[in-house]
Amino acid sequence: MFVMKKIAAYRIYKIVTMAVKFFLQVYFFNRRYRGRWDPSVEKKWSDLAGKQAREYKQTALKLEGLMIKVGQFLSTRADIMPRSFILELEGLTDRVPPVPWEKAKEVIESEWNTDYGSMVHKISEKPVASASIGDVYHAWLHNGDSVAIKVQRPGIDFIIRTDFKALKIVIWLAKKFTNFGKQADLDALYDEMVSVIGDELNFKKELQNGVAFGERFKDTEGVIVPRYYEEYTTRRVLVMEWIEGSKITDLSFLDKHSLNREDLAERLLLLFVDQLLNEGMFHADPHGGNILIKSDGTIVLIDFGMVGVISKNDAEAVQRAVEGVIFERYSEVVGALEDMKFLLPAADRDLLQEIVERVVAVYKSGDWQDGESLMMEKLLEDVQDIVRTQPIQLPTEFAFFGRALSTFTGVIYTIYPEADFIEMARPTIVRWAADRGGEGNTWQTVLRTIQPYLSAPSKILDALEEPKRYRRSMESYRKKESRMNDLSGRRRETVYFTLIPLTALHGAVFLEEWIIAGGAGFLTLFGLLRIRALSKKIQTDYEE
């Protein structure tokens, strides 16, 4: 397997055949249970998605490379992936054996164009960390500085390029034969992944990102970013300051040094909020291994290979969305989502506003913390149903932002499971809104702050009507979903059966059997016209 996974044809074959298998399983499942989506069918669908996720995870751990990163990305896409699929992929991390020291040394000396001993006084021949992109070694420079040296794994750039070719084929198949193309701009998403992950292969780019983050947080108390050594860094070798610490999710370390978990969780949240509300770069891979904690409670940010960028306009829209949640102005949240291009023109703003309000209400109630909570489970299912039936999309520029948010949220809950993000962030958001608004908006800020308390009586009355209103909304959208599923199933069925006369047409032309070619051509044309008619009907229903 170790040799086979380095062969391009083998990797492409494994990835594409797995995708085709999954697409066919979904197609035949939808065909078999079309029009009768009841709890028993829902259970079978969940089992199928979970089985597919387990197979994907097993394949990703064997092939390594891009497959692991794509799996990590899919585990954050609750808008298009079934919940059972996401649960199976949670915790998918790089589990790769370290590169033998001799091969790592070859990379170092090739990049430095000299014997490594002339550059460093001493280096550990056993890496302190290993991942799919590179291994990290502890070393000491001749001037006594303790440094971390990240060395790119030999051949990883070839593997990533090969995997991107396979992914390109999978995306083409998904656009042609599945509904994923309506839920996300797959071509733009592919380009974004090439850009972000491609940068991760260039350690000079990571150095630039690290320097930028160091400048950004240089005045933030209790947060540090390692110093980078530009004179030692190349495209495949990165040298930065060594900082003693432990993974921030190492709970035994936190307890050993009597670090307050609640305080640490709040500091982490505000650290991420700073990246959330302001334009510029954000850490796109903030998992526990990329955030260290020192014994004195200092937070250390490392590994800036994967970063995203949020524009000024998007940052302002995110600010409005966060304020809307904090101050319970849910129409502003929906408006912000529209400005960020999450919603297409035909989206039902009133229904989405109700959903946002319900999600926040359930979150505040604490029911989400109960793993057996039927209320929370039902809410998640309903939200996914509405996402599937509403003209909602995930803009490409937010793909890695959503992944970062999900990863960071998991880190905070690991440290402090009782974390209440809304209450933790409220004082900071109030101060930030007041500073942004200036003195002239002081009273507006005050009113926004006390609004949740003034609106409580009306919300109690409104809550009495919520079940009836929500049932009507869900009944309408479940009917629409059933109609859409039926049309999509008929279109997929037509596509598959059109391939038969199309194949016969090619064969008949090659053999010069013109009568057969004519018949096959007629059937192919008929199939294409039917596909076009069904596609128009689906688009019309989708935009209603």
UniProtKB/TrEMBL annotation:
Q: Name one Pfam family in it.
A: ABC1
* Annotated transmembrane regions: 12-29, 515-531
Keywords from the UniProt entry: Membrane, Transmembrane, Transmembrane helix
Q: Which InterPro entries match?
A: ABC1_dom, Kinase-like_dom_sf, UbiB_kinase
ABC1 atypical kinase-like domain location is 92-333
Similarity section: Belongs to the protein kinase superfamily. ADCK protein kinase family.
| Protein name in UniProt | ABC1 atypical kinase-like domain-containing protein
